[in-house]
Amino acid sequence: MSTLLYRLGRFSFRRRGRVAAVWLLLLALLVGAVAAFSGSTTDKFVMPGTESQRALDALAREFPQASGATGAIVVAAPQGKKLDPAAVAPVVKEAAAVPGVVAALDPFQVGAVSADGRHALVQVQFDRGLNDVTAAQRDAYLKAGSSVTGLRVEHGGEIMTTAPEVGGSEGVGVLIAAVVLVVTFGSLVAAGMTLLNALIGVGVGMAGLFALSGVVELTSVTPVLALMLGLAVGIDYSLFITSRYRQFLAEGMERDEAAGLATGTAGSAVVFAGATVVIALAGLSVVGIPFLTVMGLAAAGTVAVAVLVALTLLPAFLSYAGTRVLPRGQRAGQEASPAREGFGYAWGRIVTRLRVPILLAGIVGLGALALPAQDLRLALPDAGTAAPGSPAREAYDLTSEGFGEGFNARLIAVVTAADAKATTAAAGQAAALIQQTEGVLAVAPPQTNAAGTTALLTIIPKAGPTDAATEDAVHAIRAKVADIKGAEIAVTGATAVGIDVSDKLADAMPVYLLLVIGLSVLLLMLVFRSILVPVKAALGFLLTVGSTFGVTVAIFQQGHLADLVGLDVPGPLVSFLPILLIGILFGLAMDYQVFLVSRMREDYVHGDTPRQATINGMGHNARVVTAAALIMTAVFGGFVFMDDPIIKSMGFALAVGVLVDAFVVRMTLVPAVMSMFGAAAWWLPRPLDRALPNLDVEGESLRHHLAAAVPETVGAGR
């Protein structure tokens, strides 16, 4: 592989104009495709096979007028006063006039007025699903009740679910990444070229993703996740190759040869690291959850583009940049002063000398950070976690104030039978049983379709949508109505869908974790020809995941230090965060593992003692890995400043995970373990060694090939 990449790097360097033109043309074509074919994203989480989804499908088939999106307009009188029907009537009338609304219920006729008479709920039913509601309809809905004075009118319900907006806050992370690049390279040209290369890759990946959005249903989080990952790995992969190129130039190698060899060596590691991220993300499809499959494949595609751009467009940019990628002193032809050992060598010596206390401190510390993870709860976010001041949040808070949080967690029991008589009997029996269920506040009288074969029971729980008591109530309701004969009864609604999604993802997480761990052991065994190194890497990954979960739960669920991340209301973590975090952190952890340990293996194979090889690996690569980790942390951390709680928690968890894995696990615990086991760390049974293919990530076979062809060139390169 390294020989092929060497040739690719030299070709791209020498044919820089053609390569750059191809990528820019591809970017332009994809931007045009976005304009022509892009569609909208959705916040609907479809979960085939779950009870809530079966109920929604039955509603669409048997009771279509009740299967569309819903809204809830909350009306409140001033403190100390009561509402009267005449004052609320204009709100009902204007809501009913919104295009696409089939019904707006007068709260005084259906009993949706609070006990103190100060609050009322106007339930609004649309004729189409959430994904089909237009922006114009949503704007008209927001204006319903605008003619009313002296009353507070807030607009909520699922109709107010909107996609997270990518604004300027995440740009802070890119600016920090640019500063890190300048400090690392000592050259504005090298830093700017690396950043530009990554941004073009992100542009191509995101344009391709949006171009497909017209035929593939994307959740609103998917593009943000792809952007987050594309930026982080795109900058890091370009950083790794540029750093190696500068190293070869400083050693006196010709520029085109340096570009080829950097692509063949560091590029091989980039291919492996990128492949692990792609495989881990694509592996989300084995969970069998459609929206998660699309999220994983979309992010994997963006990472794959980042790898291709780093291997082809970056050498072309290096050709354009000339020697300006070097610091000013080296460009002026000054003799380099004798290289001083950096902090990587010093840190490597400290870790190998104090390996036992460092190992104990690291494991105990990460274990302590992981403790809150045992209280992990999962849920889909609701309007109660929306940005303060947003319409959805204002409506949620006003509803909770007037009626209790349970009115924001409405459930629907769908009763289906062969005829109207059986449906009526089953609905009555179900209503009685549900009313007696712990955690249920009230059950509304049944609504039936025209044929009388399907009935809806609206259920109001006592607690909020993401409260554990509501989850218990849903499970208890399902257990009670399961024994009713002659009808099929299923519980659905946004709250029930969220519970089903969380349950299915929680069940899938251990299976996926085992898949990822097994994959990491196999891949690292191929790369490092060792048994211990893969096992150690997998155990380190578990420490990373556990501590990251623990810190994220402590802040986002338990509320400790929540103000530091701008979190208004703590609550359960979003259902798909843990499984996404496992897949993403796995790939990123393998990046640092490969770049650090591959140099240790190279020096050990060339005759260094195990301890010295460990120190050399840290000394040569600690600087670039530190820069890469800081860049990733900055990019991910930039998304913490977004208002959307899903994006905020994802950015925070990924930033913490990268920091823990890079600085605690890979740069501290890994060298400590390597020095402790010595030569045994590189042991591989001979039969297994013969059976495994040689991936040659560090380009050893490439160097032998070049040495045989042009000995003097390779001698200069070394």
Automatic annotation (TrEMBL):
Keyword flag Repeat: no
TM region positions: 171-191, 198-216, 222-240, 261-291, 297-321, 354-373, 509-528, 535-556, 576-597, 624-642, 662-684
Main location: membrane
Membrane topology: Multi-pass membrane protein
Entry's localization field: Cell membrane
PROSITE patterns: SSD
Span of domain SSD: 188-320, 511-676
Pfam families per record: MMPL
Keywords: Cell membrane, Membrane, Transmembrane, Transmembrane helix
Domain of life: Bacteria
UniProt cross-references to InterPro entries, sorted A to Z: MMPL_dom, Mycobact_MmpL, SSD
PANTHER family linked: MEMBRANE PROTEIN MJ1562-RELATED, MEMBRANE PROTEIN SCO6666-RELATED
Family (UniProt): Belongs to the resistance-nodulation-cell division (RND) (TC 2.A.6) family. MmpL subfamily.
Protein name (Swiss-Prot/TrEMBL): MMPL family transporter
Lineage: Bacteria, Bacillati, Actinomycetota, Actinomycetes, Streptosporangiales
